[in-house]
GDSL esterase/lipase (Apostasia shenzhenica), 488 residues
Amino acid sequence: MDLTRPLFVLFGDSITEQSFFPGGWGVALANSYSRKADVIIRGYGGYNTRWALFLLDLIFPQGNAGAPSVVTIFFGANDAAILGRTSERQHVPVEEYKENLRKIVHHLKKCSPTMLVILITPPPVDEDGRNEYARSLYGEKARELPERTNEMAGIYAKHCVELAKELNLSFVDLWSHMQETADWQKKFLRDGLHLTPEGNAFVYKEVISILHSSGLTPDTMPFDFPHHLEIDGKDPAKAFTARK
Amino acid sequence: MDLTRPLFVLFGDSITEQSFFPGGWGVALANSYSRKADVIIRGYGGYNTRWALFLLDLIFPQGNAGAPSVVTIFFGANDAAILGRTSERQHVPVEEYKENLRKIVHHLKKCSPTMLVILITPPPVDEDGRNEYARSLYGEKARELPERTNEMAGIYAKHCVELAKELNLSFVDLWSHMQETADWQKKFLRDGLHLTPEGNAFVYKEVISILHSSGLTPDTMPFDFPHHLEIDGKDPAKAFTARK
């Protein structure tokens, strides 16, 4: 089916996959663009950028009509998993992470040069929160050393921001911005990594602010079809033919 | 872009449009089918079935690849607005309502004979709730007589169910089922017509129960791409080529 509205695709890892949970940032976006744009999720829990590359041709085929108007790219939380610790199979070296992001952006821009691509850095990591979470799952068997650190996530975030600046892309420096709020560890993160409702609201505000400044303001975007008050009860066809 | 998952479309009036509000039945469906199916909303506040017919060719073009797997059709609340009262421009006679629904179903089945089409009746109407809502908006100027009645909504619901049985379609008799719960007026409806969070949960449960009994159970549907635990860190390509 052809979509009658601009399409926004949220592409990323579990933090994107979970954005349609109740209170999620994806839900909030979909609701803000009600009758103006469609929002769909391409979030893959546990994925890093290396694995994301395998999806590109399938999710975003070249030469295909109806390319998305907006794509958010939100990876890095898994790439930044630390070598030699429990999540090392997800680790991707930071230079490769940056090059993988570049490949994703190039692919998308080939799909549609006018596409608004928004890079989002990984969020900060609350190491105490990660440890508590591990203990809640594994008790005394939980690993001693954190499998992700805030410092490491910051290095990946820095590379993400660098790439966005190099390519002149919009970006959300989530790692830095979240840490400007007191008690970000518990306020925004529920297990040291994934978002609380307030963390989701934070991401939503950052993303919609970029959409607004790019001219994609819901209030000024057209409805796909007439508002019901524009329809003349005695001659409904008029409202529909007038828009063709 | 091609969708890599089955597509579910929710087609209807404001009760569908608002299904992506926080706590909405559309959000709950989208979340249940996370990584299994896409859920998009085609809800048009204030629309009746007569106006919906103008949208069919545009939303659901014939001969177009990628027809939805599932479409819910949820109209009637506006068609049942009472002649001679404040919402009469939205009124559609009940026989025409039934024939319009038939046209919508035929159109969809021509798009894809295997599409699961689910008819949903209008919800019951809490006339006191409607009156309170009108007074909250207009004070003493509010209309004396309700513009919608529960009895009238019931007549439309009955015709919707009749059509579903005639055409051997799945259906949700929302009008009847909601009234089986004590205090349905306040429990399920927030202004006498639109849904509370509990009303949304009710619609969600009814719809997902039909999806389950039609074999569309999220647990048994495939992921569009491998779960990250299926990916060999040393040979990631394997997991992706194996699925082609």
In short: The longest helix of chain B spans residues 94-111. Strands of chain B lie at 7-12, 38-43, 70-74, 116-120, 170-172.
